[in-house]
Design brief:
2 copies of one chain form a homodimer. Chain A is α/β, with parallel strands linked by helices. Chain A has 15 helices and 15 strands.
């Protein structure tokens, strides 16, 4: 409704806005599958002439290419040329700062992965500048290999970004506070010889948020779900109507600090009985001793559990139960269509699911809960980085006028 | 974006859609405060001629009236006549089925209360038909007194409606299951001599949802908040971006069954340690014995606590602590701008707040939590019925074409 007055007015500003919206409309149709101009016109309700002019602009902007004759549609007349996304068009660059690794990923306009690089690095306690130097090299190499020019860069980080505009406010597992991510990364990119990447728009988001978005975009997630994930910490993404619920200040999803045993173990956050104390690295450390701290705890725990190690199985049963209690509270509160185990939990799922299912069945009773609503992400630990890279190209498709001079 | 093609096409269907949207646009402006036609034109971007034609239709439909000369605007020229909402236009009829009472409320188009009726009735275990007979009489009397013709009727109920289309699926405190509310109410209205009310569109919603909406619409609630309320049961409404989060199947807000002490008291739902067992009627019954069951537990408890009764104060401190634990989990998950104590909790707030504040401060630590984000509803127990009635007129203002022949 709010958009209507623009459509009624006839000033140049409103025509420009309409053209920009129509560019997005046309590109959105082409992004779903290649179409002829006539098919685009039929699907959008735009005239054939308008579609031709908009397509011209998208082609000139490098977003769309002619793919050869469109498949015969059964209609009378010569089949048009199919328009498709330009496989060499602008790409999306994703970067991930993990506690035990760095990642870089380039996707093309269709969201297809073109390069994927991961490097194991112990980042805990390192200075941001040192981490950014390593990350810049990884990004430089990934982009060079992909042969695409990224339209933007999104960073997945294990901490709180909120609505701060790209400041990593707190990442307990890295030991970082108030790190201005873009300002730290840009000089590192220049030093690594990737000056063109230093000019890109940079965004940053919490890894669980990006994992949840990837689940929605690529993993077949429904419109409404709770995505629960573990990396260094425990987090969640709440997807409502296909969009991320970010909260009033951008801090939604702090699932790791939901109380599950209010009088239980003291958490690093100061509270008692947080989920993270039962379903995260802390639980492993407590059960396995400081040896658990070497390397990635998820890999470690999966290895031990796979070998039938009793303490590891006990830790995982306890983690599943704690996850089930916290998830039951969230389900009662939010009524998601699914709870999705993502990130490190996807790998640990075989050992988490039995206890988690039991708690959900026992605690979500007013409305029937069914086991199949608890699912495991196919994307697993790749989710956050995929979400970062794909988010960039989705933003291009949603508003191509920004790039194609709309 | 999706709306754009309509604006581009020029068929009659799209012109009708545009006129209907513009009717809403004009009425929305007038609903905020009386305006002259020229002011409406300036504010909406519509031409003066279009505004005059739309205003004519709104006047003919009984939604708008000429209020006399508009206040001088300081501009050159004769001041126009101010257009305002018709105080005798269609109203909103709200009804409430409580465990211990029935309620009826009529508001005018501006949301002003015209009649408010409440009757104490013990509805627990009564058959729906008997309750509906009492409610129909109350509604009949309320509408007759108000002298307004309602545009619709919304029922606030202490149970789950979900996306069932008006079936009260479960109301444990009434002992009702799968009650088709409109089908039960309509014959009762006819029998009460209110045949015209039996023809109204009837909607139904959970009392906490309607209380949360009332808080947003009338109580000064922010864009994002968690509204927590107690009547017979304990419920919540989650407001995100000014709108209710309903969940995948419409069951969001079952705050009463969030686990707070996972190994604690057994709940009527079958689970252990649900919030309702510590912050609802069950807690009172457990502490005070069956005597607590007589009459409304909130009133009873407030009375005893006000008189300094130690067991009552202990129950309330425990309830505040349990509420704080559950609210801390919800805040970590959702990051609302506020947590609002509504319904019966608003009345009990003086005794709940200290323990609740302490738990929130101890358990929401990663991001700073401040006491003033825990607030008490000014609407209190009037919220759900107000939300029911006001929702009807808000729907009229949002789409007057439905009534005014758009």
């Amino acid at each position: 409704m709010r958009g209507e007055p623009d459509a009624v007015r006839s000033g140049p500003a409103s025509q420009q806005g309409m053209r920009r919206a129509n560019l997005a409309l046309v590109l959105g149709v082409i992004a779903r599958a290649p179409r002829s101009r006539a098919e685009v016109a039929a699907e959008t309700g735009l005239t054939r002439a308008a579609v031709s002019s908009l397509a011209e602009q998208l082609i000139a902007g490098g977003l769309v290419v002619e793919e050869g004759p469109a498949a015969p549609s059964g209609k009378v007349g010569r089949p048009g040329t199919a328009l498709g996304l330009n496989p060499l068009g602008p790409g999306g660059l994703g970067a991930e700062i993990g506690v035990e690794h760095l990642g870089a990923c380039v996707v093309d306009l269709s969201g297809e992965v073109r390069t994927w690089r991961r490097r194991e690095v112990r980042n805990r306690g390192r200075r941001p500048a040192a981490v950014m130097a390593d990350l810049a090299e990884l990004l430089h190499a990934a982009v060079a290999e992909a042969g695409l020019r990224p339209a933007g860069l999104t960073l997945a980080v294990p901490g709180l970004v909120g609505t701060s505009g790209g400041v990593l406010q707190r990442a307990a597992n890295l030991g970082w506070r108030d790190v201005p991510l873009a300002a730290e990364l840009r000089p590192a990119l220049r030093a690594a010889g990737a000056a063109e990447l230093a000019e890109l728009p940079v965004e940053a988001d919490n890894e669980a948020n990006l994992g949840g978005l990837a689940e929605r975009w690529l993993g077949g997630g429904p419109e409404d779900f709770l995505y629960v994930s573990a990396e260094a910490g425990v987090g969640a993404a709440i997807v409502v109507g296909g969009r991320l619920l970010r909260g009033a200040r951008g801090y939604a999803g702090e699932f790791g600090h939901v109380p599950v045993h209010p009088d239980g173990h003291r958490c690093a956050c100061g509270a008692h009985g947080c989920l993270e104390q039962y379903a995260g690295e802390a639980a492993v450390l407590r059960a396995a001793g400081p040896a658990g701290a070497r390397g990635d705890w998820v890999t470690l725990l999966a290895g031990r559990a796979g070998a039938g190690d009793e303490p590891a199985l006990a830790v995982l049963a306890g983690a599943g139960s704690a996850l089930g209690i916290a998830a039951a509270g969230a389900v009662n509160l939010l009524d998601p269509a699914e709870v999705v185990l993502g990130g490190g939990y996807a790998r640990l799922a075989p050992w988490l699911l039995p206890a988690m299912r039991a708690e959900l069945a026992a605690r979500v009773t007013v409305r029937p809960w069914s086991d199949e609503r608890l699912t495991v992400s196919r994307l697993g630990r790749r989710g956050p980085l995929l979400g970062a890279a794909v988010g960039v190209v989705r933003a291009v498709v949603a508003d191509p006028g920004r790039l194609a001079g709309g």
